[in-house]
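Think of the structure tokens as a kind of shorthand, similar to the way a musician reads notation: each symbol stands for something richer, in this case the local conformation of the backbone. In the example below we present two proteins back to back. Begin with the first one, reading the sequence and then the tokens, and try to describe in your own words what changes along the chain.
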Amino acid sequence: MHQTKKGNEWHFGMKVHVGVDAGSGHVHTITGTPANMHDVSETANLIREDDEVVYGDSDYLGAANQLAIRDDEKKSRTEFRVNKRPSSLKMADAFKVFKWDKKMEHAKSAFCCKVEHLFLIVKKQMEYSKVVYHRIAKNMNQFHMLFASANLLMCSRAGRTKDFVGCIVQLCPF
């Protein structure tokens, strides 16, 4: 773990990067980095082989230009739909009535909010807001369990309990 400065405040810790399926909203990939690494550097590790479109917030601008993505044949064909920073949305006076740019950014945010929803479940319902250990590997073990539990919770809320009941019966035969 490492320290970094955001604004005038120093933070010590780590970042958790999560890859989420756009259709189901379930976590498929989790990576952890020190706090001083930029988010866009982990993009290549979050993309699966079968992903055709990747959504991200403005922290992932320039993800398509990363060497790990450009050099990989499958990942380089992936389409990146990344939100722009709000300060970069400038419109001509003739188009201010329609607000096309804001509507397109809002549509992209609808996919990005699935990731934020999982962090909400982990932080609020599982009451996990601060890491316990000073090593990324130990904290990542906890995050794997927390996000797996969040996937199960989302399945049960959606009424898809048949998807994971068979797994529990195989593990606990009593």
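Once you have a description of the first chain, move to the second and do the same.
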Amino acid sequence: MKAIVNVDSNWAIGNGDSLLNYIPADMKFFREKTTGNVVVMGRKTFLTFPGPKALPNRVNIVVTSDRSWSAPDVIACHSLDELHEQLARYDTNTVYVIGGSSVYEQLLPECDTVYVTKVDSSKPADKFFPDLDKKEEWSVVCESEENEHNGTKFRFVTYKKGDFNE
């Protein structure tokens, strides 16, 4: 399983129900990685989508404790056990955790790769992703050149679980 996330310099991912940064190249990167695959998210993350509608050309799985919640073209799972039953139907290399913060926290231990768009800014936030730079089990295996959008600098960084310095 993989995760994909956009973080600021404090590993913040959101404030209220909004992303911190809108960067077209990051959205394109997200589409390229997740299209044709399985995306796992929390209900609040799903509700931030336009519509809100399921992301096209993906299997959309929403984790929610609200047993009455449903949406077209979405598989709702009401527990991690239920989620794992669903995920057993797919190759784990095709599964991407896409948020929010509690879903990332719960599923990060099961991920082996995390695609991080690191944005060189700091904004008010109330939702965070675990700081992989402070976790011994995670290593940077690929880092892009610095990019810029409307004065905001960012780079794409790939983390893998395990020791890749041998």
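Compare your description with these statements about the second chain. The chain has a mean pLDDT of 95.
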